[in-house]
Protein: SWIM-type domain-containing protein
Amino acid sequence: MTQAVQAYAYLRPSAVHEGPAGRRLALETSGGSTPLGAAANPRFFAGFLTAPAPAAAALLAVADVAAARYHRPQLRASLDPVVTANGDRLRFESFSGCCGVYARLDVLADGLDGDEIGHGTTNVDVNNPLRESLGRIGATDPLHLAVGPDALEVTTLDGPLVEKKVPLPDRWLRGFAETQVIAAGLDLRAELPAAEAVAFLRTLPRTAAGGAQSRAVRWVVPAGRTLRPTSRPVPGAVCLPGPERLVALQRVLRHARALRVYGPSGVREAAAAAWEVVLPGMRLTLTLSPDASRGFSGEGGVLGALASGTEQDADRIAELLAWEPRIEPADLAEQSGLPVGRVRAALTRLGTAGQIGYDSAEAAYFHRQLPYDSGRAEAHNPRLRAARALHAAGAVRLEPGGTLATVTVEDHHQRVRTDERGRASCTCLWWARYRGGRGPCKHVLAVGLAREAAAGPAAGATR
Structure:
């Protein structure tokens, strides 16, 4: 798979410094984006963490995910977490090396006490000495946080002292794109008080049985103030595949105030779910892919938006984003003059460049800016490339009535049917295997392209 080498240039290693006023956590930044453009080492915040021990444990949990591969755990990963400053909070994000676990720590306004929080996105250095220092933070230790270099110190340095060149697979970018689509489809299914949350999470295995990844699909269902396991997807159940992948939450259990679980409604097969631990002034969320051996990068949730003609819409919406912590599609629709449906499609498309995330706790999108070009995810998606080739070759025949279409691939004919709610199905083997669970097949995408072309720009303008 194609990889890009992302160079992380830090002025110095991140560290916890001892001083007369207590400990100071200095998180060093690499090149990133700010409202004024690209910055070599942006500074986002300097102040105190109001809950030092929970914050240190939660940062370590995000770093644990970045360093782990839950599928084939004998292989280690090494990716520096991403930090986004949204003006009223700091968000730390990471993916596991296998791309099957997404971690995000939201340090909210109540968790920060200091100067103004900036705006922008960058990577932060998390090294082994820093991890060891964070592990020693106690409940009564004051902890000062600085995200970015101190301007006075920068002037004394000749150049970067720490540089990491990390190969970032394209699936990492696609994982960011897919998780924002998946998260937007999750609803709160259960909320456990602190004691019950800790008791439940401590029952989960730290490793898969026998050292191998568990393949059986597990489910849990709300039962009073806790969750109980169930062998099948009964109404209200939430999927829990590979429960050992929640091991990073063990770091914060003693600080937990509640556990919230988010999942899709009416699921009958394995599905993604988000597990959020509420901490003092912050939230730590782990989102699990539907299978321990299955990364988010192949879910296909963004293919419909990529296949539709939303490039101009996405450009228009991108101009209105400003690292907002909460993005409301209705507000963007009013500002841009686009229908809400087209705004949502544009946001999904922007998510394929890592510009959009989704916070299930607030049911809202948020803005970040990762160092990827907007066409990269599309260029490396084989289903979308195949669909465009089929459409360009004239392989799609739309039947009268608008509900049926035939796609000819060599000497095979696949029938695509669209119901009254706009849901499509296909007669191909991909559809028979996944039933739409991993996004549309190339035939459905090709039919969508053909219908859009047949409708013309006038129809598209009213979507």
